[in-house]
Amino acid sequence: MAMTFSLLGGSFYQNVRRLLNKCLRKGRQVSLPDDVVRFESVLTLDAPEREVESLTVDEPTTEETTYCMAVNHFGLLGTHGALPLRYTEWLIDRRYRYGDDSAKAFLDVFNHRLLSLRFQAWQKYRLYVDAELNTKRQLPAVIAAVTGLSAEQMAYLPAADMSGLLSTSVRSLVNLERLLQREFQLAVKIQPFYGCWRKVTTEYQAILGGCRLGEAPVIGQYFWDIQSHFLIQFTYSKSQQWEKFLSNSDVYSQLNQRIALFTGGILSFSLELLVAFKGTGITLDGQFNLGKHGYLGNEARSAATRLYITPIN
Fold first, then answer.
1. Closest CA to 309 of 259, 255, 247, 257
2. Which one of 22, 188, 205, 249 is most buried, counting C-beta atoms within 10 A?
3. Is 33 helix (H, G, I), strand (E, B) or coil?
4. Which domain holds residue 269?
5. Do 206 and 81 reside in the same domain of the chain?
6. d(CA 273, CA 140)
7. Cβ neighbourhood burial of 263 (10 Å; 0-12, 13-18, 19+)
8. Among 9-13, 65-69, 218-222, which is the least confidently predicted range?
């Protein structure tokens, strides 16, 4: 036997955690401590200074390395064990007088199971450890249970690693760019103060005869609002991908929901898609739409085409 893993501080939980992480980094499929390590008790009547006594490599019987960890605490034997000290004294006598470890090996079967379940219980209530050791993360399900949302409703929320962008009191369009880029995996550029025409309600329109200064200052039915409207620009490398952002698509509804969640529904937006069409026009056979699948003309276009999607208010 030879030492291949250095213990850190003697903590049982942290050393098992580090050992499992080491095996995961090497590409091993590890889901439980049983896949990597075998726990055994320490035959001693001394007061232990740390929880883990030693870690060694088992005899190589398989292609993958398995370890043996001698644990002082939380087991069945020793001064901190669950069994009376008489059992430890009897096993020490069997080892040093007769060289017999069969009884200890039998008790270590239960000792291993006890320590393995103890580590799994510790891991269950520490979500950061569970996220390290499992590919399926439990934190989204816990958040959904606490907030009272179903799995279908959680699908409409941004990714968990983007929640920090929503926690700030002042939300900038730079953070919105990062959120949309992470969500849709596209190059995003936002132009603030883009402006749009808005219709004036009847009570704010000026009426000839009987109008008062300060009450009806607007002439006409529309005005140019520049402060509450911005432009979102997506850049596509493949022309067939942009169709999912049409105003009647599920992706456009998801985009609308993300922006409403970030801005609070106060600001409106326009959508611009930069699409690089490939080819030299379209064939007039009834299968292509002008402006959607191609363009007129025989010369190939080198510059990207700007497509504007009418927002749904």
1. 247
2. 188
3. helix
4. 162-309
5. no
6. 32
7. middle
8. 218-222
Residue type, 86: R
Are residues 294 and 245 part of one domain?
Answer: yes
Would residue 36 count as lying in a domain? yes
d(CA 110, CA 82): 12
Minimum mean pLDDT range among 39-43, 89-93, 154-158, 192-196: 154-158
DSSP-assigned states of every residue in 217-284: -B-SSEEEE-SSEEEEEEEESSGGGGGGGSTTSHHHHHHHHHHHHHHTT--EEEEEEEE---SS----
Domain count, the chain: 2
What would the two tokens of residue 276 be? 């690089």
Q: Within 10 A of 307 (CB to CB), how many other CB atoms are there? A: 19
> How does 5-19 read in b/e, with b if 16+ C-beta sit within 10 Å?
bebeeeebbebbbeb
CA–CA distance, 55 with 71 (Å, rounded to integer) = 9
Is 229:194 a contact under the CB 8 Å cutoff?
yes
196 falls within a domain: yes
Evaluate whether residue 79 is within a structural domain: yes
Parallel, antiparallel or unpaired: strands 196-199 and 187-191 = unpaired
Do 166 and 120 have their domain in common?
Answer: no
Same-domain pairing of 24 and 101? yes
Same domain, 206 and 98: no
Residue with tokens 């401590």: 33
Nearest alpha carbon to residue 67 among 142, 141, 16: 16
CB-hemisphere CA count at 13 Å for 218? 14
Within this chain, do residues 92 and 182 fall inside the same structural domain, yes or no? no
pTM over 0.85: no
Look at residues 106, 100, 101, 18 and name the one whose alpha carbon lies nearest to residue 67: 18
pLDDT in tens, 156-204: 566 656 666 777 778 888 888 888 888 887 888 888 888 888 888 877 7
